[in-house]
């Protein structure tokens, strides 16, 4: 049966979301309908609504945004074997089918299952399960967690422990996994290394935490908003720098502070200028810069010499390899986030 519930619908880009009554159709083959209990509001949601002309590709509207969530399985479609009603789950905007070439490759987490249709805001059969006023509403990244109920493919869902606090672990659905994974999986931060994290939102704070867990000696938090510094220090930043306090460029400041540059720079802002600065703040002969901040259409400037000397520039999607495993090995990361305060991420309880 169709479930009638509330959802925040984006009717068009650049306009605020409208709370609407929507219909959520039953799950089809290999699909699961879930009741969303809590959802984070990620920077990426905002970007797709308000920055489609700046750095984002166009997505079809009307759209239900939201991709960082936790919930409970309400019902399962035909041929679903791994989930049952009542299971606690985290929907994944990047699936893990376990069968495609990418899933078989230990070097990446970029499963290709449903990739094209997910980017187009529909499920495997080319339609979405959410409708409003008899009109199809597209599902952002195949998830759409700004709705009390949604339907996702069974390959885009992770079962979690039945005692997991859903309003905390929802952050594993994007921000925490991305930032933590950027440091631990993609940068592979080493013990006693020097790190700089640009941008101290949820992604950046999780990156700080990843650097700390990896045993970094210095973790320099960089943000233009000094209000973020206290929290960053609670997460493990050893010092913080506001680029606006300096007349020199932030890369010059960091190179001077570290006598030649950091070993690892993590960009968690999503700005091409900050990406270039992050790269240039690394040590010339071996520094690694990982980009986690999101932009789809912009270009960053890379001085060839910066690479020629031996630096590495990498990107990360949902925290890189290996596969996200839930919840045991990362649940403490979510708890750590919780401990240090609530305003890093607004979590909405549905
Ligand atoms: P956020 O808005 O909470 O945090 C961004 C921080 O960057 C803010 O504290 C802001 O003050 C700071 N900032 C802005 N301009 C700056 C500058 N010039 N120098 C230093 N700091 C600056 O965002 P978030 O939710 O933490 O997300 C961060 C980025 O990560 C976004 O671009 C988001 O789209 C992206 N993201 C990427 C992935 C991925 O898979 N790679 C996943 C999730 C989010
Ligand atoms: Zn996100
Ligand atoms: Zn796959």
UniProtKB/TrEMBL annotation:
Belongs to the zinc-containing alcohol dehydrogenase family. The keyword Transmembrane does not apply. The keyword Transit peptide does not apply. Residues 14-348 form the Enoyl reductase (ER) domain. PANTHER family: ALCOHOL DEHYDROGENASE, S-(HYDROXYMETHYL)GLUTATHIONE DEHYDROGENASE. GO terms for molecular function: S-(hydroxymethyl)glutathione dehydrogenase [NAD(P)+] activity; zinc ion binding. GO terms for cellular component: cytosol. Keywords: Metal-binding, NAD, Oxidoreductase, Zinc. This is Enoyl reductase (ER) domain-containing protein. GO terms for biological process: formaldehyde catabolic process. Transmembrane segments: none annotated. Its cofactor is Zn(2+). Pfam families: ADH_N, ADH_zinc_N.
């Amino acid at each position: 049966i169709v479930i009638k519930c509330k959802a925040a619908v984006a009717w068009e880009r650049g306009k605020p979301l409208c709370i609407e009554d929507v219909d959520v159709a039953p799950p089809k083959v290999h699909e699961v309908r879930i009741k969303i209990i809590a959802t984070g509001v990620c920077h990426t949601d905002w970007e797709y609504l308000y920055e489609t002309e700046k750095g984002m590709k166009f997505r079809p509207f009307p759209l239900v945004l939201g991709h960082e969530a936790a919930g409970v399985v309400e019902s399962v479609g035909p041929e679903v074997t791994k989930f049952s009603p009542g299971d606690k789950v985290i929907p994944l905007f990047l699936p893990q089918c376990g069968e495609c070439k990418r899933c078989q490759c230990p070097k990446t987490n970029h499963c290709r299952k449903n990739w094209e249709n997910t980017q187009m805001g529909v499920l495997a059969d080319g339609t979405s399960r959410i409708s409003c006023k008899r009109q199809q509403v597209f599902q952002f990244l195949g998830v759409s967690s700004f709705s009390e109920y949604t339907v996702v493919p069974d390959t885009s869902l992770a079962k979690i422990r039945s005692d997991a606090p859903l309003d905390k672990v929802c952050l594993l659905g994007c921000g925490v996994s991305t930032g933590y994974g950027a440091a631990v999986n993609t940068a592979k931060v080493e013990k006693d290394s020097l790190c700089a994290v640009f941008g101290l939102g949820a992604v950046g704070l999780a990156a700080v935490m990843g650097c700390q867990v990896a045993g970094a000696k210095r973790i320099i938090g960089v943000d233009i908003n000094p209000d973020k510094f206290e929290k960053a220090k609670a997460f493990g930043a050893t010092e913080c720098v506001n680029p606006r306090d300096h007349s020199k460029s932030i890369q010059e400041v960091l190179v001077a502070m570290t006598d030649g540059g950091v070993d690892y720079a993590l960009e968690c802002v999503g700005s091409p200028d900050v990406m270039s600065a992050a790269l240039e703040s690394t040590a010339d002969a071996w520094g690694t810069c990982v980009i986690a901040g999101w932009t789809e259409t912009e270009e960053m400037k890379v001085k060839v010499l910066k690479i020629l000397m031996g630096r590495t520039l990498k990107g990360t999607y949902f925290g890189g390899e290996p596969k996200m495993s839930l919840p045991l090995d990362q649940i403490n990361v979510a708890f750590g986030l919780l401990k240090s305060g609530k305003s890093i991420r607004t979590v909405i309880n549905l």
